[in-house]
Amino acid sequence: FEMVRTSTLEISSSGVVKGFVGLENYDELLGNPNLIGAFTRTISWVLIVVFFTILISLALAQLLNQNFPGRKIVRWAIIVPWAASVIMTATSFRWMLDGYYGVLNRILLDLGLITEVQDWLGNPDTSFPLLIVVAIFVSLPFTTFVLLAGLQTIPNELYEAAKVDGSGIWKTYRSITFPLLFPALTVGAVINLINVFNQFPIIWIMTGGGPGYETDTTTTLMYKLAFRSQEVGQSAALSVLNFAVIMVFVLIYLRATGYLGKKKED
Q1: Can you tell me the distance from the alpha carbon of 211 to that of 121, in angstroms, rounded to the nearest whole number?
Q2: In this structure, are residues 42 and 197 in contact, taking their beta carbons and an 8 Å threshold?
Q3: Contact 64, 78 (CB under 8 A)
């Protein structure tokens, strides 16, 4: 309620409320030259990160569902990026990708793949794709274990029956594994949509939304509007729009988990 109310007020840089302005903050926000770029970048950010997170997690979950020596150690290793602080992970990647002291430049120079150091996070052509890679890395553990839990609920008797019927690996996966895994897949995808859409620390710590506004999403742009441009009203207006998008994701999640759309029993 306070967020919606603030979006209709004119507030000075010192926090003094100057008065009610109605939808003026929304008009100014829609006229902001950085909004379209941040909005399209947010869509790309969410879709690419979630798609590749789900794709890689499917393979990892399938691997971890098999019996092999050291499986417990591999499971522990995969969960580390999720157990660690996102801020700590983002800071580690920022230093690894540093143009002067980063280990990535050192490795590529030693291998002869580059001839001079690269400013990976200062170049718009490389900074945003690298942010996506880090976001996928951070998202993998949770999604993998959600899908692994789904795989472990599938009865082995179904696979044994399919084997007796002469069903191949891919046919078994299409007809048994994927359909029974789909509820867990849906939950993992929707939760990732929410988390990735709201993601702030990775972008802010690694690039600060820069250079300029080249790696901003609507979340980091919202922060910049409030604390750099001192446009509190516009920031609140963008918060309202972000909140509306999140509510759509929440409704999808509730529907996917069965909390919405259930038929009442007679």
Answers
A1: 8
A2: yes
A3: yes
DSSP string computed for 179-195: HHHHHHHHHHHHHHHHH
Q: CA 132, CA 140: separation in Å to the nearest integer?
A: 12
| Residue pair 225/238 in contact by the 8 Å Cβ criterion | yes
Q: What are the CA-CA distances from residue 45 to residues 29, 93, 132, 187, 214 (Å)? A: 21, 18, 7, 19, 13
Is the CA virtual torsion 187, 189, 192, 198 positive or negative? negative
Among residues 247, 173, 199, 167, the alpha carbon closest in space to that of 41 is found at 199
**Which residues are bridge partners to 11 per DSSP?**
17
Question: Does the pLDDT at position 260 exceed 70?
Answer: no
The continuous run of DSSP H or E covering 10 comes out as strand 9-11
d(CA 207, CA 97): 11
Mean pLDDT of the chain: 87
Q: Residue 177 — very low, low, confident or very high, per pLDDT cuts 50/70/90?
A: confident
In a 13 Å sphere around the CA of 227, the CA atoms on its Cβ side amount to 7
Express each pLDDT in 100-120 by its tens digit.
Answer: 888 999 999 999 888 888 899
Higher pLDDT pick, 78 / 196: 196
Task: Determine the Cα–Cα distance for residues 140 and 78; give it in Å rounded to an integer.
Answer: 8
Which residue has 């795989």 as its token pair? 151
Residue corresponding to tokens 């660690």 = 84
Cα distance between residue 216 and residue 211, in whole Å: 9
Confirm whether pTM is higher than 0.85: yes
